[in-house]
Amino acid sequence: MGEVAAKMKIMPESIDTDLVELKEKLKGVIPAGTDLYGDIIEEPIAFGLKALIVTLIVNDEEGGTEAVEEAFAKVPGVENIQILELYRI
């Protein structure tokens, strides 16, 4: 079984969401067997709103990103999660 790089976009609930705190919370809920690749990047969207771009290395198995998506969705301040790219490593 191999690994997959998953690039995700995390939208905060509002422009007032503390992104530094949100990044730390996201790092804290990454499931075992999943690794953060690089830093969590802020991407400007519009009118001061910024999304967080997270790249993770997950196992290449059915539902590989589901555990991460579920963990991130439970973090206070997260509005939604979108998978941008998936690459087999």
Question: Which properties best describe this structure?
Answer:
single chain, 89 residues, alpha+beta, Alpha-Beta Plaits, 20% helix, eEF-1beta-like_sf, protein biosynthesis, Elongation factor 1-beta, Transl_elong_EF1B/ribsomal_bS6
Shape: globular
Q: Please count the beta strands (DSSP E, at least 2 residues each).
A: 5
Weakly predicted, low-confidence segments = none
Could you name the CATH topology?
A: Alpha-Beta Plaits
**What is the CATH class name?**
Alpha Beta
State the helicity in percent bands.
Answer: 10-25%
How many helices in DSSP terms?
Answer: 2
Distance, first to last CA? 11 Å
Biggest sheet, open or closed, and with what strands and sense? 5 strands, antiparallel
- At CATH level 2, the architecture is 2-Layer Sandwich
Number of domains: 1
CATH superfamily: Ribosomal protein S6/Translation elongation factor EF1B
* Structure class: alpha+beta
Question: H/E series, N to C?
Answer: EHEEEHE
C-alpha Rg, in Å? 13 Å
Mean pLDDT value? 93
- What is the beta-strand fraction? 35-45%
Family: Belongs to the EF-1-beta/EF-1-delta family.
Protein name: Elongation factor 1-beta
GO molecular function: translation elongation factor activity
InterPro entries: eEF-1beta-like_sf, EF1B_bsu/dsu_GNE, Transl_elong_EF1B/ribsomal_bS6, Transl_elong_EF1B_B_arc
Structure report:
The protein is an alpha+beta fold and 89 residues long. 20% of the residues lie in helices and 45% in strands. It has one domain (3-88): 2-Layer Sandwich (Alpha-Beta Plaits), CATH 3.30.70.60. Strand 3 and strand 4 (49-59) form a beta hairpin. The longest helix has 10 residues, at 19-28. 13% of the residues are buried. The mean pLDDT is 93. One of its GO terms (molecular function) is translation elongation factor activity. Keywords: Elongation factor, Protein biosynthesis. It comes from Methanosarcina baikalica. Promotes the exchange of GDP for GTP in EF-1-alpha/GDP, thus allowing the regeneration of EF-1-alpha/GTP that could then be used to form the ternary complex EF-1-alpha/GTP/AAtRNA.
